[in-house]
Amino acid sequence: MWIVRINKRIDSLIIYLTEKDIFNYRLGIARTILALSTLLTLIANDDEVLFKTKTINLTDSFNNKDLFQNINFFSLFGFDHLYVAKFIAIIILLIVISGWRPRYVCLFHFWICVSFFNSVRLVEGGDQIASILTLLLVPVLLCDDRKWHWNKAKKKEDISFGNFEYLIANCFHIIIKLQICLLYFHAAIGKMPNQEWSNGTAVYYWFNDPIFGMSEWIRPILDPILANPIGVAMITWSSILLEVLLFMSILMSNRAKYFFLILGLTFHFFIIIIHGLISFFFAMSAGLLLYLWIDNEFGKIFFLEKFLIKKKQPIGCFENL
To answer: Which residues cross the membrane (predicted)?
Structure first.
């Protein structure tokens, strides 16, 4: 009966989610890179350049009826003592990077990232991604009882119906995967109605933008390509194609995920070279590491393993993940 088969699948899925251990060094690397994104921005910029002026949100927040603005981390000491909040934020981010006690530090990491996103004068996509990922990582890391996020978690013996902490962590890890998956889907689909992206000329305008355009040192390399209509179109359309493939990689095999992880990291690294968006690179790199984790869980959860995995496995079998 198909109902029995579905019930077996659901039972196997629950057992799988209560046994799969994601608390390892790969999660630690993603956290470290994510914290590095915000840390570099704080260190490399002066307060007056980075944050809003005295007449805007920061000093008015204590008289503001908006609760969220009142608890902004960078408003705690006022604008005149902003350096105190900035110094504490840097210390906390260094602790995150070190990997010490992720269960206790994760809330402070989220607080800093979301406060930073709502306080700085100019924000980029990387700051928003960092605030979202740190929020989604909070339930995962509250279940992480390791002293250092570089170590492998100790397997717990008491599993009456699996490990409830693993269940929560794995469910939110899936939500993170879906978030990054939809991010690339939106990035690709959102470009298509635009005339410059559809006709293949968008990259020419972006590379020559007076604010976000390419640096002068790379012009001798890219100008000949941008002068060629075919070269411009190839770069423009290949960017959309890559984003579509990164969206689809959620259901791909392990080998394909390795390939698109490297391809995605390379893609965002070139964005640094051309546009100088360093914090965006680190935030997206952390997202890619969390997204393209080396497993086939989505293929199995949605019953597609026979199309995605060469080795045939019994129905409801999740042990080899």
So the answer is: 23-44, 73-97, 166-189, 225-248, 260-293
> Could you give the C-alpha distances from 305 to 146, 248, 255, 297, in angstroms and in order?
32, 15, 14, 9
DSSP code, position 65: S
With 0-12 / 13-18 / 19 or more C-beta atoms within 10 angstroms meaning exposed / middle / buried, residue 135 is: middle
- Which residue's structure tokens are 């924000």? 123
- Positive or negative: CA dihedral 7, 11, 16, 18: positive
Task: Please tell me whether residues 217 and 272 are part of one structural domain.
Answer: yes
* Domain boundary pick from 153, 185, 211: 153
User: In this structure, is residue 158 part of a structural domain?
Assistant: no
Average pLDDT rounded to a whole number, residues 36-43: 96
Residue 55 belongs to some domain of the structure = yes
Asked if 75 and 146 sit in the same domain, the reply is yes
Q: Which residues of 207-221 are buried (b: 16+ CB within 10 A; e: fewer)?
A: beeeeeebeeeeeee
Residue 172 lies in a domain: no
Count of alpha carbons within 13 Å of 227, Cβ hemisphere only? 6
Q: Confirm whether 1 is domain-assigned.
A: no
pLDDT at 124: 86
Q: What is the pTM of this model?
A: 0.86
pLDDT band at residue 64 using 50, 70 and 90 as cut-offs: low
231's CB contacts (< 8 A; 6+ apart) are 224, 225
Fill in the amino acid letter for 127: D
Q: Which residues contact 258 (CB under 8 A, 6 or more apart)?
A: 292, 294
Range of the domain at 141: 23-153
Number of domains in the chain: 2
Q: Which residues contact 306 (CB under 8 A, 6 or more apart)?
A: 312
